[in-house]
Amino acid sequence: MRSNIGIWWLLSGFFALMAIVYTVWNIVANPTVPWPQAIEWAGSTALAFGIFMSAMVAFYIQLVHKGQHGTALPEDRDDADIDDGDAELGEFSPWSWWPLVLAGSAAIAIVGLATAHFLLPLALGLFVVAIVGWVYEYYRGYFAR
């Protein structure tokens, strides 16, 4: 985490340096024009936003690291296993057909929006059936608990 913080602060400094170089270069390249008109404002503004956005990410990561009281993530430890960084994903049913029905209802709704609006109530009804079936699939049938 500390290396990420350093990389983001370094990126913020790089954007600051490039913003200064870009702005000065535009002023030097156009000596006959007054300096506010010589600056190419779109590029200078984009680089300034790059400074602020990378500094915002660096500051956020720094606050998170401080909130964790400096504990190292599994990616930062040399003795960590691959499984140490895995989060709990939940329980999924490999035999469930309800996600396919749900995707079918979404496809019918998109086709209904694009071509025939009379398909929208059909898609909505199929969507409700798919959601109810998916939520309650463990409460009935062979896999009831």
Structure report:
The structure is a single chain. With 145 residues, the protein is mostly helical. The protein folds into 2 domains: 2-77; 98-139. The protein has 5 helices and no strands. The longest helix is centred in the first third of the chain and has 28 residues, at 2-29.
Q: Which tags fit this structure?
A:
flat; 0% strand; mainly alpha; 5 helices
What's the SSE blueprint?
Elements: H1 2-29, H2 35-38, H3 41-67, H4 98-114, H5 119-135
Helix pairs in contact: 1-3, 4-5
What's the gist of this structure?
By secondary structure, the protein is mainly alpha-helical.
Number of helices: 5
Number of domains: 2
Q: Would you identify the regions where 5 or more consecutive residues have pLDDT less than 50?
A: none
Distance between the termini: 42 Å
- Gyration radius, to the nearest Å? 27 Å
Oligomeric category: single chain
- Strand composition percent: under 5%
Shape: flat
Main beta sheet:
none
